């Protein structure tokens, strides 16, 4: 009987974990049990992936790897005001984000002077370009 061990290479954690999702829904206990037979801790570090393949081949199993990509890192400054440019008017952003908040050169001083320095950029109130 041929058996395929299904695993997930989770790039956000650097671990290889069992893919125990049953195709009809629920949990595939056979997958979970087979992985636990090889790695009782329930995971395999990415650096030990060759051990995973060696142990699977000793059992005459094949390995099916699905990759779970790491989510992109969120950077509010980049999303709100890419490249130091106001997304509303195209004007330059002033401030450094450490001693003064980043703000559009066209923004009213009352709209940003009381913000903490590391707050999200304060943009002008013009219509977006």
How do the helices and strands line up, and which of them pair or pack?
Blueprint: E1 3-10, E2 15-18, H1 29-38, E3 44-45, H2 49-58, E4 61-68, H3 76-80, E5 93-94, E6 103-104
Parallel strand pairs: 1-4
Antiparallel strand pairs: 1-2, 2-3, 5-6
Question: Runs with pLDDT <50, length 5+?
Answer: 76-80
Count of DSSP H/I helices: 3
What best-fitting shape do the alpha-carbon axes yield?
rod-shaped
Strand order, main sheet: write it out.
3-2-1-4
Give the fraction of residues assigned to helices: 10-25%
Listing every helix as H and every strand as E from the N terminus to the C terminus, the arrangement reads: EEHEHEHEE
Instruction: State Rg.
Output: 25 Å
Quick synopsis:
The protein is an alpha+beta fold and 129 residues long. It has two domains: 3-68, no CATH class; 73-129, no CATH class.
Notes on the structure:
This protein has 129 residues and is an alpha+beta fold. It folds into two domains: 3-68, no CATH class; 73-129, no CATH class. Helix content is 19%, strand content 20%. The protein is built from three helices and six strands. It has helices spanning 29-38, 49-58, 76-80, and strands at 3-10, 15-18, 44-45, 61-68, 93-94, 103-104. The strands form two sheets. A four-stranded mixed β-sheet has the order 3-2-1-4. Residues 76-80 have low confidence and may be disordered.
């Amino acid at each position: 009987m041929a058996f395929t061990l299904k695993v997930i290479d989770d790039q956000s954690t650097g671990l290889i974990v069992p893919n125990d999702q049953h195709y009809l829904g629920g949990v595939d206990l056979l997958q979970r049990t087979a992985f636990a037979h090889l790695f009782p801790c329930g995971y395999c570090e990415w650096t030990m992936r060759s051990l995973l393949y060696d142990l699977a081949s000793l059992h005459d199993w094949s390995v099916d790897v699905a990759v779970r990509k790491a989510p992109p890192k969120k950077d509010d400054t980049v999303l709100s005001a890419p490249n130091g440019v106001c997304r509303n008017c195209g004007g330059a952003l002033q401030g450094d984000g450490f001693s003064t908040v980043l703000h559009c050169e066209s923004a009213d001083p009352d709209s940003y002077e009381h913000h903490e320095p590391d707050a999200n950029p304060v943009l002008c109130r013009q219509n977006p370009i």
